[in-house]
Amino acid sequence: MNLAATSLPAVSLSAMLRVSRLDLTLLWRNKSSLVTVFGLPVVFAGMLVPMKGVDMGGVDGALLQGTGHLGFFLVFGVLMNLVTVFTARREDLTLKRLRGTALSDAEITGGSVLTATGMYAVQALALLTVLGVALGGRFPADPVLVLAGLAGGVAVFAALAFALSGVSPSAELAQLTVLPIVFGCMLGAGVMFPLDDLPGWLAQISRFTPLSPVVEITRTGYFGQDFHDHSAHPSVGVLAGWRTCLPSFGVLALWAVLGRALAARWFRWEPRHA
């Protein structure tokens, strides 16, 4: 049975929090998941130190890559985490048993998304603190724009997690399922370097990866500079920043629609029967 076949009753926040608490309990018992969710972001944050003071596209290299990591952590905290959770719970019949309780489908899945979002928020706030305190950064020029970009990324990668969990045969192989997206986002989303450094045609294609618009919006909001239309990254005001990010929000919306369609087609509540 897939997501398209589920009903949408009223959702109880308290019920979602109960599911979220279960997720946290299971996470602390799974050492590999802990390393993926918390360890890898620490490693990537440590990689920023040598880039401090290096000019990249007119801005400090540590801050440029750090704002890219704000988006890239979505791959670990949301995508990889949720794919593993949904696949493991499907295969051990936990999802099937939960559907036999008073919980609605939205509450069962929403609780897990809530947990992943909360953990990602902790990672993002910690990285923003590191950028500002240790790496000479600043308070975001437009924090609302930064928040909107990251929230859109959570929605997109959560939808993709629903879909990819449906094609992951086991929890052990779930992380391998997302590896192509990990490498694609790392190399083609402007995380480590500006997309303007790529050949023109490749840069335009890369702007349509699911993470690229998140990075563009986050950097524009953080620096108060245009990171979408101009390689020189001129300063922009609040309204101009939102206006220049409209194409990026459009790409996010397209990925959200595609992710929802794939989730409706691929997500499964129980293992396939032989």
Automatic annotation (TrEMBL):
InterPro entries: ABC-2_transporter, ABC2_TM, ABC_2_transport
Transmembrane segments annotated in the record for this chain: 31-49, 70-88, 108-137, 144-167, 173-195
Keywords assigned: Antibiotic resistance, Membrane, Transmembrane, Transmembrane helix
Single annotated GO MF: ABC-type transporter activity
Record's subcellular location: Membrane
Pfam families noted in UniProt: ABC2_membrane (PF01061)
Membrane topology type: Multi-pass membrane protein
Domain of life: Bacteria
One GO cellular component, as annotated: ATP-binding cassette (ABC) transporter complex
The ABC-2 type transporter transmembrane domain, residue ranges: 24-223
An individual GO BP term: response to antibiotic
Main location (coarse class): membrane
Name of the featured protein: ABC transporter permease
Originating organism: Actinomadura soli
